[in-house]
Amino acid sequence: MLLTGASGLLGRFVLARLLASGREVAVLVRPTHSWTASQRIEEALAPSEQQAWLQRPRMLVGDMNNDGLALGDKDHQWLSQRPIEVLHCAASIRFQCDSASGEPYRTNVDGTRNLLEVCRRLDVRSFHYVSTAYVGCRIVPTAGKVNEVVVADVASGGNDYEKSKIEAEQLIARCPYIGDKTIHRPSIIVGDSQSSFTSTYHGFYAPLQIGYQLAKHYGFSAEAGQWFRQQLGLQPEDSKNLVPVDWVAEAIVRTMDTTSSSCAPATSVRPRILHWTNPHPVPCELLQESIATAIEYSSSDKQSAQAAQTRDKQTRDNPSDEIPLSGDFREQMQVYESYFRSDPVFDNRQSRALVPDLPCPIVDRAMLLRLAKYAIEQNFGWPKPLPKTLPHQSLVATLRHFPLSSGPCESQLVLRLLGPGAPETLAYGRQNQSWCLLPAAAIPLPISASGTLTAPLSLLADCLSGKTNLPLAIEQGYCIMEGCLPQECLALAEHWVHSLHTSLC
Hints:
With 505 residues, the protein is an alpha/beta fold.
C-alpha cells in the first residue's frame, strides 16, 4: 500500500486504520524546514494511539511536485518489488489560485500526474483517489441529484480547488495502464464524531474562526449573533452536507478491502465513483445557530474589559456597527462564497452498496457544538506544535544498520515494533550464529520459516537495559511471539536480543 497525504486530516485517520489492520504501508512524506518525515508521521499518528500503539509505515521521503516524486533509487526499487495499491489523499485545499506557488493546481493536478507517471513503472493493482463531492455541483441533472460519474467540463467547478480536482479526476480516468480505479468523493469533512479532533480548520470552521476572532476583540451580543448569521449569506431553508472524518476514513478503508478482494473486472475506461456524503444534511439555520452559539459561549467566558467598553448604547442598537471589521469579515468570506452555497442532493447508491452496514453519523446540534468547542479550545491549531524528539533513535539506528544478508539463513526473525519512534517492519536472518538484516523484499516472510516478534519499541529498550526480559514481557502480555514452535521462536528472539545488546555495547 502506497499512501500520499498521510499528515492531512483524512490521511492520518486512514493511515491509522491501515496500520491497525496489519497492512504493509508505505507513506510518501515531504519533510519541512523544521519537521523531519518521521516527526510528521509521529504527529499524525499520535491522536490515534490513545488506546494502543500502532506499527509504523515505511517512510518514502519525497515530494509530489517533483518528477519521480523525488524518491531515491532504493525507494523506487522497494516499490517495484511488490504489487502496490495506491491511495492518493495528498491535496492543496486552496480555493483561489495563488500565482506565486501555482496552488492548488501544482499539487492537485501536476502532483497527480507525477504520481501516475511513477505508477507506470510499478505493478499497481488498484488506484484510489480522494476528490470532493462538489466537483459536480454546477451541473446537477434534471433529476436533481449529483451523480457518481466523471465530470467532463472543468469549467463546471465553482472555484479553483474544485476545478483542479476535476482535472485530476480526468487524468486518472484516462490513465490506460491502471485498470482498477476508484474515485472517492467526500462532502465537507469535519472532525471526529466522538473526540471532535481535527487538524485542519477549513469549511465549517472558517466562519467560526473569523467570527470568534472578531468577538474576542469586540465582544458578542444577541444582536451581533443575528448580524453574523446574515453575513454567511445562507437562507434558513438551505443545507450543507457535513461528514465526520472518522466515518469517511472507515468507509474508504472498508471499500479498499471489498474491492481488492472482489472478482469484479477492472474498470480501465471508467473509474468507480463513490460519494461519501451524509443522507441527513445540516439545515443552514442549525449550522448558523450552532456557530453563533459557540462564539457567544466562548465570548461570555473570555470577554475582556476593554472589549466591553467599546460597546455603548449606540452600537448595541445598531448591530451592523458593533463589529467594525464587518467589511474585513465579508472580504475574508468571499473566498468561501462558492463553498457556502446550498448543497444539492448527492446520489450515493454505489457507495451505500459497498458498505451497507456503515451508516453515516447524523451531524446534529450537539455534535456541531462539540466540534466548535474543540476548535476554539485548540485556538484553531495555533500556534503550530513544535516537533518532538523521537525516543530511542540510537537503538533504531542500530536496528537498521545490521550487516546485510549475503546468503541463505538458517533462521529468520520478523520484528514488528510499535509506538512512538518505532521503525518500519524489519526482518533478520541468522547465519552461523550471527545476525544480519534481510532486504525489504523478504517481508513478510512465510510464518513457517520464521518467528515474528511484535512489541513496543520502549519494551525492547527496557529488555536491553535489564528492566525486563522477553519471557516475562510475553507472559504479562506486553509483546507477542509467533511461530510454528513457540519455545524455539522464543529462544530465537532471545538470541537476537543478546546479539543486539552486544552490538550496542
